[in-house]
Amino acid sequence: MQPTLATDRLILRPFHLSDAEEVQRLAGDFRVAEPTANVPHPYADGAAEEWIATHAKSFESRSSIVYAVSLIGSGRLAGAIALSQISTTHSRAELGYWIGFEYWAQGICSEAARGMIQYASNELGLTRIDCRCLARNNGSARVMEKAGFLREGHLVKHVNHRGQYEDILVCGLTLPARSNPATTE
Fold first, then answer.
1. What confidence tens digit (pLDDT) does each residue in 43-62 have?
2. Which residues, at least 6 apart from 157, have a Cβ–Cβ distance to it below 8 Å?
């Protein structure tokens, strides 16, 4: 069962189908969707329910772990954060996130990222996390920087984003390696 995580101001919890309407409202905002490589716009009716319905199976298979980012005091949904492409063989994953426009510039995404990084290190034993964003997405690049990621690459015209070829900024974070008794001598 997917655990709930807490930071100073946030609860990172599994999504519920009852979150779908708010997901569609927040992620469907063009200001949120446009600078991201993976959030659709327009956000079609039913798409949030379909997305949320995939989370439990992805967690069980450990292929990805998706959390709702909610505010401690009000419980309001502010966005999403996820580890995807989880590889136990290579002890790594990719971090992704989106935050509703009304919650930008409040440190919420950086705080959620730090909580997810701690979970990835302490509970999953990951030693590396990658993160990517459109190179022009200064807000996302700042989140990565504040969470401790280092810039590792700039992929020129790497994605076709809404009909335009765009550059991708690649960042990485290494975490302390944990001893694995099965592989030590």
1. 999 999 999 999 999 999 99
2. 165, 166, 167
